[in-house]
Design goal:
about 170 residues, mainly alpha, two-stranded antiparallel ribbon, 2 strands
């Protein structure tokens, strides 16, 4: 029931706070951040929370890379470097505050939070590519409104649901 409430809240917040889509729009970042806050408040497993952290890292990194490119700064590999920087800015403090690396908080021999973060990172990158592929197949147009927002949120939700059943 708590998971269902969190998922519905995230979707409603996502639609209420929508803005025009950008490289990876701020709405995605806010939605992922809201999902993280709600999941921690509800006491949801660290693997699931990690999924949202991974999505937040990639979303923020791509958003920063887009900003860097608009400023026309000459930084090599801005997307890659931005995601790495955001990953370090998020994960190092979590390690220092002992949220990551707790004894016994593992799944398949990996820390649940790190495992979830890796899954969320990969899923968010997949969702960006899926959006691009759909646009390519549709002459550069979206199939539905807010496609760039809905695809990542839905894929992160499905990943969260999979981890919910795995860790239950």
């Amino acid at each position: 029931m708590k998971l269902l409430f969190a998922l519905i809240t995230i979707l409603l917040f996502n639609f209420a706070a929508s803005t025009p889509a950008r490289a990876v729009c701020p709405v995605c970042t806010v939605a992922v951040g809201a999902g993280l806050g709600i999941s921690r408040w509800l006491g949801i497993d660290d693997a699931i929370t990690g999924v949202w952290v991974g999505g937040l890292i990639v979303s923020s990194g791509l958003w920063m890379a887009d900003w860097i490119q608009k400023k026309k700064w000459k930084i090599p590999y801005p997307k890659f470097l931005s995601v790495i920087i955001f990953g370090l800015l998020v994960l190092i403090p979590l390690y220092w505050s002992q949220i990551i690396g707790l004894p016994g908080n593992t799944l398949w021999g990996l820390d649940k939070f790190i495992l979830g973060t890796e899954a969320g990172t990969l899923i968010f990158l997949l969702s960006v590519e899926l959006d691009r592929w759909i646009r390519t197949k549709n002459q550069g147009r979206v199939l539905f409104f807010y496609q760039k927002v809905i695809i990542p949120v839905v894929l992160l939700l499905l990943t969260s649901l999979a981890f919910y059943f795995i860790t239950k």
